[in-house]
Specification:
Blueprint (H helix, E strand, L loop, with lengths): L5 H14 L40 E8 L2 E8 L5 E5 L12 H9 L2 E5 L16 H14 L6 E6 L2 H11 L4 E7 L9 H18 L6 H20 L10 E6 L8 H16 L4 E6 L6 H4 L1 H14 L2
Parallel strand pairs: 3-4, 3-5, 5-6, 6-7, 7-8
Antiparallel strand pairs: 1-2, 2-4
Length: 311
């Protein structure tokens, strides 16, 4: 590892982690391991035909969903009434939420669903550049095959904010609300900011190529391949006014070592909230970008509030 000054190193890690959205913030791409299960380790008894209404209450069930020739792992804790879907940030699989899922289920009684995006956890690898449209399609297919069609509260962290935006555009009637946890939001991705993020992330992308089969590295490389075009388009995306949203922004932001980028992150969150009705901005005081880990009580509170308000 190079002897980069601490502040600069923090910014570099955050930029590669958030902007190219394939790593959890603070994890060194080429130096760290990954503890997710192999994509090929799915239980042979898993099925894509079962619905969230099967199995025992409080028990996590694995459902393998087919979409476009690849399989995706959806993990369902059966409840009643509404459904809460938790979507992880770049490079993270469903295990990111393992501590929150039982608490959320106990507090709300709702069905709680997590899943592994393609190439992560138990889900199959899909070669080529990362495509947000494909990620949206995977989530849609999973919920549809699980019989979920309405009363969904979508909780999205970091990169998953992009998936949430397009999912909400396509499925406004399915969603009763969303909680966007320090999420990528359209106002951030100006041409100037995209250029900064690409420049900062270059060394991390090159380092990832030394171990391209490691899941997080693979995600970083694939996201980098489509990053500029994807986020130029995302900058123009509009959140549907029919879907209420709570935006939780971390106090430290992903750019704790760069005041300029940190302010742009905060400004993007504020702009997003001001641009539409039924949007609330909440600051996670003292938290890094890893708000679900640093401030789990706050995240739980806001999910519960959103779910209760819409039902």
């Amino acid at each position: 590892m190079s002897r980069t000054p601490p502040a600069r190193r923090s910014v570099n890690r955050a930029l590669s982690a958030l902007a190219l959205t394939a790593l959890a913030v603070g994890t060194a791409t080429a130096c760290g391991g990954h503890d997710s299960a192999s994509p090929h380790a799915a239980s042979p008894s898993a099925t894509s035909s079962a619905s969230p209404g099967t199995g025992k209450a409080g028990e996590t069930q694995l459902h393998m969903i087919d979409n476009g020739g690849h399989r995706l792992a959806f993990h369902v804790v059966r409840g009643h009434g509404s459904v809460i879907v938790l979507d992880s940030g770049g490079g993270e699989d469903s295990s990111y939420w393992k501590d929150l899922v039982p608490r959320l289920h106990a507090a709300t009684g709702a069905t709680v669903i997590t899943y592994d995006r393609a190439g992560l956890g138990r889900s199959d690898v899909v070669p080529g550049p990362w495509k947000v449209a494909s990620a949206v399609s995977d989530l849609e297919a999973g919920l549809r095959q699980l019989g979920v069609t309405k009363d969904v509260t979508l909780v999205s962290h970091s990169q998953a904010g992009e998936i949430a935006t397009y999912f909400a555009q396509d499925n406004p009637r399915m969603l009763s609300g969303a909680v966007l946890v320090d999420a990528n939001l359209p106002p951030l991705f100006t041409d100037e900011e995209i250029a900064r993020l690409v420049a900062f992330s270059g060394p991390q992308v090159e380092a990832a190529k030394n171990a391209p089969d490691e899941p997080r590295n693979r995600q970083l490389i694939s996201t980098a391949q489509s990053f500029v075009a994807t986020n130029k388009a995302y900058h123009k995306a509009v959140w549907p006014s029919a879907v209420p949203a709570t935006v939780i922004v971390s106090e430290k932001t992903p750019f704790d070592g760069s005041p300029e980028d940190a302010q742009r992150w905060r400004d993007a969150a504020a702009s997003f909230v001001q641009d539409g009705p039924d949007r609330t901005l909440v600051t996670a005081k003292g938290s890094s970008h890893d708000v679900p880990k640093d401030r789990p009580e706050l995240v739980l509170k806001e999910i519960e509030r959103m779910a209760a308000a819409q039902h």
